[in-house]
Structure formats: structure tokens, C-alpha cells
Design goal:
Layout (H helix, E strand, L loop, with lengths): L4 H4 L25 E5 L7 H5 L3 E4 L5 H15 L5 H4 L4 H16 L10 H4 L2 E5 L10 E2 L2 E2 H4 L2 E3 L7 H7 L4 E4 L3 E5 L12 H6 L8 E5 L3 H7 L7 E5 L6 E2 L9 E2 L11 E5 L10 H8 L3 E5 L16 H11 L4 H12 L9 E5 L3 E4 L17
Helix pairs in contact: 3-5, 12-13
């Protein structure tokens, strides 16, 4: 994707290996382009080029696969917590991943400087047969996931090109009711101080949100088929596909079999490794037809440096953004940025599906939501 001279005038001219991006196409003047990283074959990429996207074809095998393996190894042993702790553990391997992605881009004549990618692109879409956690790449003084809207596009193979094209468009959805299920042990944290509860108490319509703590398994299972729910949010222990949906002592259950086309359109699966691979819970629901989901790429400690459950700005920004009409990707980015640098694990909670879903705020509980004061402490 080439840029007119006027677009580059504010940027210092750099040598090819460090310049932002350059191809032979012309950027649309009304919006920044979308950066697409994909392992799809070249025949499937023409329409993306025609839509003004900058497309980087990827080869997963070899050096890129090894870079992902190395980062996976590091964050398995040192789950992302704070920015300070990442520097001596997995940050260097995330940088190696960034370098390998840049190297593959140069093979088609495109140069990428990750520090200024957020200034050049509207969003980043990754469509690959393997999940690539570019959200954890360094970007300036932060992480790319806190600076850019990033979405991982997953679908059945024959549907993947169409899903990428859909992710370029805004999609409106009703927001009538949210169900939040918590099955982990919060220690000494009171219910009112728990992240999701605290963030949602002031949304303006108490009937629009249902909170479940240690529900019976049949109650939790029934939520997946509720036609009146638009967001289903689980906070729980588990693995890639098996989640403890009732109590922290319950038997993990493969929730993938509970997907229903009549159920919620958006899912937040905040259990360890719920977004760790293509067939794990969060991406699986999107492959089956959900508009979007969030799932953790790895295990995580939810308290930053302390390792204890604590208040966070992430959910404040996420939920306030959604009911105020922000696109899902923008709300996720705002939440991540608000929590940085003390809690970077939110950048490992990957967004799958369409980042441009925008909820109809007037449909929230049948009433216009009232704004709430931001928490300052």
C-alpha cells in the first residue's frame, strides 16, 4: 500500500528496513487502511487489495512458527502480569516474533515499523491457521494490543475470506441483556469490588445485567441457549475447551457443545487458555457463527504484580464503551490501554471475530443508558 507524499510529510523518511509501509497501491482518503496478516493463498487476497487493505501473506512453517513456539513457551512459564515483569521473561521473545513478521513483509516489498503502525492503520486483522499473538508485540512505550484495534479472524476454511471482508464493515447488534457468570474464588475481595460487578453496577438499568456466582451446572448451561441474551461473560478456571462453569471445584465441562445459533451473539470467555488455539472455546464459538468473542491466549494471574484479584479499569472502559456506542474493538483497546502498564495480561485476552460490531444503545434493557462517573482510584 503506497501513501501520497502529503500523508508521509509528517513522518521522518527512513531507510527501507525501518520505514512504516510501502507498496504500489493507493490508500483510501476517507479512512486509514486495514492491515491484514494472513496465511490464506494469494488467490483469496485480491478482493482485500481491492478494498484498500495492506495485505501481508504469511508462511507459518519455519521461522515464524518457531518464533510463536518460543513465545508460547515463555508465557506458559511466566504468564503476562505487569510490563515490568515482562521485560525479563517473555518481552524479548515477543520482539523476535515482531522481527520475523517484519521480515516476511519485506519479501513482498513492504516494510513495517511496529511503533508507528497504530498511526497508519485503522485496524489489524489476523487470519491464519495458527493464532499469532501480535497483541503482545512491543509498540512504543506499550504493547500493540493497547494501541491498535486487533482482531483474530477465525472461520471454517471455505468461509474465511468472507469473514475477513465482513470484518471490514460495521455491524450493528442489539444490546438487551448481559449475563455474567463468576465461578472462581475471589479471596477477600467483596462482590461489589469484583471487576465486572463494579464496572456494571452503574450502567443505568439493573434488569439488563444478570450476575451468577457459583450457579448450578444446568443453570450455567442454559445461558448458552438464551435468545434474550446478547453478551455471555464467563470468569472461571479451565483449559482450552473445558471450563468450570459452576464452581471452582466442579468438573471442567467442554462448553463448545453448548453453542446455539439462538444464543448470545458475543461471548467473553475469561478462563485460562480459552483462546489458545484455533479449536479452543473462544475461536470455536466464532467459527460456529457468533459475531465475536474474547478468550485468553494463555494462563494468567489476574492481579498484575500482586497476583491477587483487584479492581481494574479494563472492564470500566469495556462496558462503558459498549453501551456508549463504541465498536467492540475500540472498547477492548480502551480497556487494555487504561490498565497498562500495571496489568498487561488484558493484551493476552484476544478478540476473535468482527471488531466493528457496534451495539444499539437504545436497546439496552429497553432504555437509554445513563452515563456514570469514572472511577479514579
Amino acid at each position: 500500500m503506497g501513501y501520497p507524499d502529503s500523508e508521509l510529510s509528517s513522518q521522518s523518511v527512513r531507510q527501507k528496513e525501518t520505514s512504516p509501509c510501502s507498496t504500489s497501491r493507493v490508500r483510501p482518503t476517507n479512512m486509514k487502511p486495514t492491515l491484514v496478516l494472513t496465511s490464506l493463498p494469494g488467490s483469496a487476497l485480491l478482493e482485500l487489495h481491492n478494498r484498500g487493505c495492506v495485505v501481508i501473506p504469511l508462511t507459518i512453517e519455519g521461522r515464524l512458527g518457531a518464533a510463536i513456539d518460543a513465545l508460547d513457551w515463555a508465557i506458559t512459564r511466566h504468564p503476562p502480569t505487569s510490563s515490568a515483569r515482562g521485560e525479563g521473561t517473555w518481552f524479548p521473545l515477543a520482539r523476535k516474533l515482531a522481527l520475523e513478521l517484519s521480515r516476511q513483509a519485506t519479501t513482498i516489498g513492504v516494510s513495517i515499523d511496529w511503533d508507528i503502525v497504530p498511526n497508519l492503520f485503522h485496524q489489524i486483522l489476523i487470519a491464519s491457521k495458527r493464532i499469532i499473538p501480535i497483541d503482545l508485540i512491543s509498540c512504543g512505550e506499550g504493547l500493540l494490543g493497547a494501541e491498535s484495534v486487533i482482531a483474530h479472524i477465525v472461520a471454517k476454511e471455505e468461509e474465511l475470506p468472507g469473514r475477513i471482508l465482513n470484518a471490514l464493515e460495521e455491524e450493528e447488534a442489539p444490546l438487551r441483556r448481559i449475563a455474567h457468570v463468576c465461578t472462581y474464588y475471589p479471596g477477600s475481595t467483596s462482590l461489589h469490588q469484583m471487576d465486572v460487578v463494579s464496572a456494571t453496577l452503574g450502567l443505568g438499568n439493573k434488569l439488563a445485567i444478570e450476575h451468577y456466582f457459583y450457579p448450578e451446572q444446568k443453570v450455567a448451561m442454559g445461558l448458552f441457549g438464551r435468545a434474550d441474551l446478547d453478551i455471555l461473560h464467563f470468569e472461571c478456571h479451565g483449559a482450552s475447551s473445558d471450563l468450570q462453569i459452576d464452581t471452582p471445584y466442579g468438573v471442567p465441562f467442554d462448553v463448545r457443545q453448548l453453542y446455539s445459533s439462538d444464543g448470545p451473539s458475543i461471548y467473553f470467555f475469561l478462563g485460562c487458555n480459552a483462546g489458545s488455539d484455533i479449536d479452543s472455546t473462544a475461536p470455536y464459538f466464532v467459527q460456529e457463527g457468533a459475531k465475536a468473542s474474547i478468550g485468553s491466549y494463555c494462563g494468567f494471574l489476574s492481579g498484575g504484580d500482586s497476583g491477587a484479584v483487584s479492581l481494574s479499569a479494563y472492564y470500566d472502559e469495556l462496558y462503558q464503551g459498549l453501551i456508549s456506542g463504541k465498536r467492540l474493538g475500540d472498547a477492548v483497546r480502551a480497556g487494555r490501554k487504561a490498565a497498562f502498564p500495571g496489568r498487561v495480561y488484558y493484551c493476552a485476552w484476544l478478540l476473535f471475530g468482527n471488531p466493528n460490531v457496534r451495539f444499539s444503545t437504545k436497546a439496552f434493557g429497553g432504555a437509554e443508558p445513563k452515563p456514570r462517573l469514572r472511577r479514579t482510584g
